[in-house]
Amino acid sequence: MHSRPTETAAPATLPDARGIRLRFWEPSDAPAVLGAFATAEMARQSGRPVTTLDEAATWITERRTAREAGREYSFAVLALGTPAAAKGGGDLGHPPAPEGRLLGSVTVGAVDPVHQTGWISYWTLASARGRGVATTGLLGLADWAFTELGLFRLELGHRTNNPASCTVARRAGFAVEGLERARLRYGDQRYDVERHARLATDGVEEDGAGGSAGPD
Q1: What residue ranges in 72-188 does DSSP mark as E strands?
Q2: Rounded to two decimals, what is the model's pTM?
């Protein structure tokens, strides 16, 4: 029988992800956040308009407030600029990203310490896709949520017309659990959503963390 904590303790460590760095968002990230949400494709990921540096700063502040309340833990995914770059370039034939450059984000939100559940979301900038960034970040985040937050079940969803996001979820050990019809609405169109989940007791095959993901 699993224990049921009444509150989520402050995490002692950050997620560990191979070849990339995950850290909490910082005020100095505002220009990168503004640039990340500049396209129409990415804008819906922000949850609110982010069209100025002030709005980007507010978005970052909201991430910190949610973290301090134990509701959400959102991480910037950054390039390491490691020695691997000097040995022949980036992954899958892409040039290496400069050290510290923003590649994307991974988040565990809707944290429920009673039922030990959380909701996963992730996005990757177009310039960083095809390198395994989303899968690697998701693997690191999931392991961290299980060990540091004491969660047992992590859930996520993606539009059925986003196969790249589905690939990321599967490679990170999130099993398909069902379909939510017309779950999301963007403009005048509604989209079905496929649901995935991973339990702390689920295994993950080591297959190289390939794939990429755009916004859901």
Answers
A1: 73-79, 102-112, 117-124, 153-159, 175-186
A2: 0.84
Quote the CA–CA distance of 12 and 75 in Å, as a whole number.
15
CB 190 within 8 A of CB 182: yes
Which tokens belong to 193? 């959503």
Q: Which of 148, 143, 150 is nearest to 116 (CA)?
A: 150
pLDDT by 10-residue block (mean), the chain, 216 residues: 48 90 97 93 83 96 97 97 45 57 97 98 92 96 98 97 95 98 93 98 69 46
Strand-pair category, 102-112 with 153-159: unpaired
Beta pairing class for 175-186 and 189-199: antiparallel
- How many angstroms separate the CA atoms of 150 and 8, rounded? 8
Three-class SS state of 2: coil
187: left (phi over 0), alpha (psi -120 to 50) or beta: left
